[in-house]
Design goal:
With 520 residues, the protein is of the alpha/beta class. It folds into three domains: 190 residues, FAD/NAD(P)-binding domain (3-Layer(bba) Sandwich), CATH 3.50.50.60; 169 residues, D-Amino Acid Oxidase, Chain A, domain 2 (2-Layer Sandwich), CATH 3.30.9.100; 119 residues, no CATH class. It is built from 15 helices and 19 strands. Helix 1 links the parallel strand 1 and strand 2. It is globular, with a radius of gyration of 23 Å. The termini are far apart. The C terminus is likely disordered.
């Protein structure tokens, strides 16, 4: 391989490989090198985080990268987000309040086998990937120089652009001293088992018939939730299942679950119905990650350096945002390279993208920070999930799928309103947090069907509308007005005041008829 390229990508995981595919497909004249430290190819069902996707990441993989056929043929179509709240010892799922959909929304996502996907990308990019390359450091300059070794032999690669996709090794963050503490004391343990968890069979016929498309709950990203924790159940191809415990250390210490036998003991105590479905199956693997959230002061630089994926920022896995962060960072990097190739100035645009990307992290941080107590309250957490999805589909997902994040004229016009959305989010999260200190009575066994909120379904459907500049402005403005009304309604509910019709269909299920508030 040549020792001088246009683009050097450090790391051959999902972030690095998807960026390489984007560049290779759209700018085939560029010379690209992906340096990956692992010698061996990832196995099918590779032990990596990020099997579940949501709309931004799914759109990036399926449409931006042209992988829809591969995803449909070799992975699983996700049946939405679903959460079951603790009730009566968690031995009977029909007694647990369920939040989800009875019919899948039109703009969907996938459950992906990371090893299978990365192998597909590696096969497509085999001529530009160099395996067994251990990065030592990067010398910044014109060009940059990447120092690495293969089997102890030193090498130097010169590149106009260097992209750090080294994952939790965080090469450039450490080298440039960009670490930033995130106050979110949470941890996760997870493992895979060689069987399908047939969650549809856990309940009786009446419970199964809530789902209009047949027994498809198992295809959801299923969450079993209680105070201070949630457990994921994610189906994978070939009848494998990924299971993870995510907890706030202030409620559930890591040392209660940081070994396979401890994790099973914890599940037996807190989620006995799941325990019965797993035991005595052997784990295929087991992973522990303490204090997984991390931040950085900067990820895009004026001198043709950038960071993507977990090498930069990571928040919380609850809403499966990992592939979203990859998608957004990669598209900013792709546009910066495009601008550079066109002879345009990079520094000012890199600064704007850095502000936007870090703002995305900072505006979504309140969704998770100090909110794990809410997982024990079905009514409050359901309101929160409805708000969180409305926020996501109204703003971040809409702007990404409509390709507006890199349209600086569009972003300039909505900047003030976009910042106000962040303030609304903080107020809603704070109101729900305060309410959880003296929560209402828990509902039991009810189904909070997100299909009953037509405006929420429309937000999802509108994501992929073919809109021009003016139309996108109009839809975005409508979304923000509706989001403001939802903000007002949630604040009103928390204070015992009347609400608009937005929440009316779910209030009886959330609070029971005795607590249902009058509507205006």
């Amino acid at each position: 391989m040549n020792n001088q390229v246009d683009i050097a990508i450090l790391g051959g995981g999902l972030a690095g490989l998807t960026l390489a595919r984007r560049l290779r497909t759209n700018r085939p004249e560029l010379t690209i090198r992906v340096l990956e430290k692992q010698k061996d190819l990832p196995q099918t069902a590779a032990f990596k985080v990020g099997e579940s996707t949501v709309e931004i990441g799914a759109h990036y993989l399926a449409e931006t990268l042209g992988l829809r056929q591969h995803l449909q043929d070799h992975h699983l179509v996700k049946y939405g987000f679903r959460i079951f709240f603790s009730q009566s010892g968690n031995r009977d799922i029909t007694r647990r309040t369920e939040l989800g959909v009875a019919k899948i929304f039109p703009t969907g996502a996938f459950q992906i086998d990371r090893g299978r996907l990365e192998n597909f990308l590696l096969n497509d990019l085999c001529d530009v990937v160099q395996r067994g390359a251990k990065i030592a450091h990067v010398e910044e300059g014109e060009p940059h120089r990447v120092n690495y070794t293969i089997d102890g032999e030193k090498h130097v690669l010169s590149a106009r652009w260097v992209i750090d996709a080294t994952g939790r090794s965080r090469l450039m963050v450490r080298q440039k001293g960009l670490q930033k503490i995130t106050d979110h004391p949470t941890h996760a343990v997870w493992f895979r088992i060689p069987k399908r968890i047939a969650i549809d069979q856990w309940g009786d016929d009446a419970w199964r018939e809530r789902i209009l498309d047949g027994e498809r709950r198992w295809l959801s990203t299923n969450h079993l939730a209680g105070t201070g924790y949630w457990v994921w159940i994610i189906p994978l191809p070939d009848n494998l299942t990924s299971i993870g415990i995510v907890a706030d250390a202030r409620f559930h210490a890591l040392n209660q679950m940081d070994r396979p036998h401890k994790a099973m003991g914890w599940i037996e105590k807190h989620e006995p119905q799941l325990f019965q479905a797993i035991a005595p199956t052997e784990f295929l693997d087991f992973k522990v990650l303490n204090h997984y959230a991390h931040h950085a002061n900067q990820v895009f630089f004026p001198n043709r350096l950038a960071i993507t994926g977990e090498a930069g920022l990571f928040l919380d896995p609850f809403y499966s945002p990992g592939s979203d962060f990859i998608a957004l960072a990669n598209e900013f990097i792709f546009d910066l390279i495009q601008q550079d190739l066109a002879g345009q100035s990079v520094p000012s645009r890199a600064n704007i993208y850095n502000q936007l990307f870090i703002s995305y992290y900072d505006q979504t941080l309140p969704i998770y920070q100090n909110q794990y107590r809410l997982f024990g309250h079905s009514s409050l957490m359901s309101l929160k999930v409805i708000w969180d999805y409305a926020l996501y589909w109204s703003t971040f997902a809409f702007l990404f799928i409509q390709e507006r994040f890199t349209d600086l004229v569009f972003m300039g016009k909505i900047q003030k309103a976009f910042l106000e959305v962040g303030s609304c989010n903080q107020r809603v999260q704070h109101a729900l947090n305060q309410w959880s200190l003296n929560p209402p009575a828990q509902a039991e066994g009810v189904f909070i069907n997100k299909n009953s909120l037509p405006w929420l379904a429309k937000l999802n459907a509108d994501l992929t509308l073919p809109l021009d500049f003016s139309q996108a402005q109009q839809v975005f403005s409508h979304n923000l007005n509706q989001l403001q009304q939802l903000h007002d309604d949630i604040i009103a509910v928390s204070q015992g005041r009347p609400t608009s019709p937005l929440l009316e269909p779910v209030l009886p299920a959330l609070f029971g008829h005795s607590l249902t508030l009058p509507t205006t």
